[in-house]
Task: inverse folding
């Protein structure tokens, strides 16, 4: 759940998720009837539901690819880096671009992941603004048994005093990830 993904990245390509219902090879056809055309690998929620919405998952910023590599770059292959989990299925859900993203895009991506029975959603993004719609979407993910990993921000601030959402939502499926030093 980020800025997209470089689908052909040598360390990630083998771990990119593929929809079992969208593999007909018929371009411009919504094979699985979910309203997204050609969503073989994920969706781009930044544009209206159309063929372009599903097929333009490119990561013009690089952040989504960077985070995906930390999570699931193939290991022991003499290439680049190794991710935390060498054999995973990474489902690119793009809702952030060069000029930002929207809560409605994040919600669409979360709902897509729920419908595709994802196990874990990673959201390496944040805002100081509470959103009821985003909270409700992450709660739906919780109700579906999905863990939501969220960035606590890069501001060196305590999120209980300076909330960073979605990490600060009071939901028990959220794993808030922060960095610290030995001086805390």
Result:
């Amino acid at each position: 759940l980020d800025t997209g993904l470089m689908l052909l990245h040598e360390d990630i390509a083998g771990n990119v998720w593929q929809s079992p219902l969208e593999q007909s090879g018929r371009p411009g056809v919504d094979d699985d009837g979910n309203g997204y055309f050609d969503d073989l690998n994920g969706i781009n929620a930044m544009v209206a539901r159309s063929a372009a919405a599903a097929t333009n998952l490119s990561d013009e910023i690089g952040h989504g690819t960077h985070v995906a590599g930390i999570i699931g770059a193939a290991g022991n292959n003499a290439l680049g880096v190794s991710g935390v989990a060498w054999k995973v299925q990474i489902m690119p859900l793009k809702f952030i671009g060069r000029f930002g993203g929207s809560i409605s895009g994040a919600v669409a991506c979360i709902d897509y992941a729920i419908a595709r029975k994802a196990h874990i959603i990673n959201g390496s993004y944040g805002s100081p603004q509470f959103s009821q719609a985003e909270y409700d979407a992450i709660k739906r993910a919780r109700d579906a048994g999905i863990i939501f990993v969220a960035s606590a921000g890069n501001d060196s601030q305590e999120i209980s005093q300076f909330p960073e959402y979605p990490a600060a939502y009071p939901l028990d499926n959220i794993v808030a990830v922060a960095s610290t030093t030995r001086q805390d």
In short: The radius of gyration is 16 Å. The longest strand covers residues 147-151.
